[in-house]
Write a structure and sequence with these properties.
single chain; 301 residues; alpha/beta; Rossmann fold; six-stranded parallel β-sheet; 16% strand; globular; binds NADP nicotinamide-adenine-dinucleotide phosphate
Length: 301
């Protein structure tokens, strides 16, 4: 299988470099080789490589900055994605693309399914939804994988921010009225590789699999519950912290205003993905513990 990976330096892209390697010939591109703000450059790269699969892990992910840069967010997350999808269709290939819980406004009680109508509440969410729609419009075979609250041992993410703050401050105040599932870049990459392997080896599956799927770890928590686990695990591994899990205090969304509004409910139902691809999605705590352990170990060595 010849795969073109875009966004190879991001949290998910970095893990994809590892997870996709056993599937065949991987061509990894960062912003330097394929700038998603330049659709023509991306088209050129796809034409030169002519892959069977394009995995797009590149995105404009600065959720708050997007509020003041809507055109750029739209260009990277939607316009270029549409171009990419058109190229993939021309090649009769597959496009794997990642989207977000932020396509929903969070007002639904319970878990969102792929059938629920998106209604993004911020610019980033609107640009990601436009990307999903551009793929549908281009008509290529695709897996659009919506995920949430992504973290990894590298890159900018909540786990690393909480660890830094826990070293600097005696008390942390973290939002407790937004719920979702922290999902590791590792899990997203591994499930992507497994799905591609299954598509390549099961024609019947490949004939009916094109579409949108929710891909998140199982279980749910708030940012506050998530932060408490990060601090507790770091403490258990002997990290030098100023705070303790008990001193991670719950606050409401209104007490921590941000430029972009976030959904109160980010819970995504994963039954469609689990049933069709036969994957098991581990509890969110499993990977949070792994990543915290790795980060603390790194700090000590
Ligand atoms: N992070 C989350 O919490 C989250 C939640 C839900 C869904 N998602 C989705 O999951 C996917 C992967 O996200 P992630 O967490 O891995 O994001 P990330 O760590 O921010 O990585 C995004 C990557 O996109 C690249 N990129 C940005 N602008 C680019 C451009 N103009 N041209 C080429 N590359 C560009 C970045 O390159 P540089 O390294 O050069 O900046 C970076 O490598 C995205 O589709 C995102 O929307 C993320």
């Amino acid at each position: 299988m010849k795969i073109l990976l875009l966004g190879a330096n991001g949290q998910v892209g970095w893990e994809l470099q590892r997870a996709l390697a056993p599937l065949g010939e991987i061509h990894c591109c960062t912003r330097l080789e394929a700038d998603m703000a330049c659709p023509a450059a991306v088209r050129k790269v796809v034409r030169e490589i002519a892959p069977q699969v394009v995995v797009n892990a590149a995105a404009y992910t600065a959720v708050d900055r997007a509020e003041t840069e809507p055109e750029r967010a739209m260009l990277i997350n939607a316009e270029t994605v549409g171009e990419l999808a058109a190229e993939v269709r021309r090649l009769h290939g597959w496009l794997v693309h990642y989207s977000t819980d932020y396509v929903f406004d969070g007002s639904k009680p319970g878990y969102y399914t792929e059938e629920d109508l998106p209604a993004p509440g911020n610019v980033y969410g609107r640009s990601k939804l436009a990307g999903e729609q551009a793929i549908e419009g281009a008509g290529c075979r695709h897996l659009t994988l919506r995920t949430s609250w992504v973290f990894a041992a590298r890159g900018g993410n909540f786990v690393r921010t909480i660890l830094r703050l826990a070293r600097e401050r005696e008390q942390l105040r973290v939002i407790a009225d937004q719920v979702g599932a922290p999902t590791s870049a590792e899990l997203i990459a591994d499930v992507t590789a497994l799905a591609l392997y299954r598509l390549a080896n099961d024609k019947d599956l490949a004939d009916r699999a094109s579409g949108t799927y929710h891909l998140v770890a199982s279980g749910e928590t708030s940012w506050h519950g998530y932060a408490r686990l990060v601090v507790a695990e770091a403490q258990r591994h002997g990290a030098e912290l100023k705070t303790t899990p008990e001193r991670v205090l719950p606050i409401s969304t209104t007490e921590y205003p941000l430029p972009a509004s976030r959904p109160a409910n980010s819970r995504l139902d994963t039954q469609k993905l689990r049933n069709l691809f036969g994957v098991t999605l581990p509890p969110w705590q499993t990977q949070v513990k792994r990543v915290v352990s790795e980060l603390v170990w790194r700090e000590k060595t």
